[in-house]
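Exercise 7.
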Amino acid sequence: MADDPPSAIDPDGRLVLFDAGSHLHLAQGNRSWLLDHIDTILTTIARPDHREDDPRAGRERFYRQNVLTPGRWMRVVVDCNDVPSWVVTVLIQDDDPRPHQVQ
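Solution. The predicted structure, written as tokens, is:
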């Protein structure tokens, strides 16, 4: 990776890096194909369709719908405990993360 890792600014104005650890995590797993979509990952952070807290303290989940496959969601988990923040992992999921409204 380059000396300056790819980055995005989240809606709260925080700098989020896709650093060497982010890259290594995806490269070692069965999601290495997502390394071809770093720009999409960063766009998900900068302009999410949905956001929510992660179960781990200080982490947040950023979601974007229909970015790689229609009807599926990209989930980017960001650790906000450090400055700058950094991408922990990226997943593609079928289920809609938004809370369902009871009528």
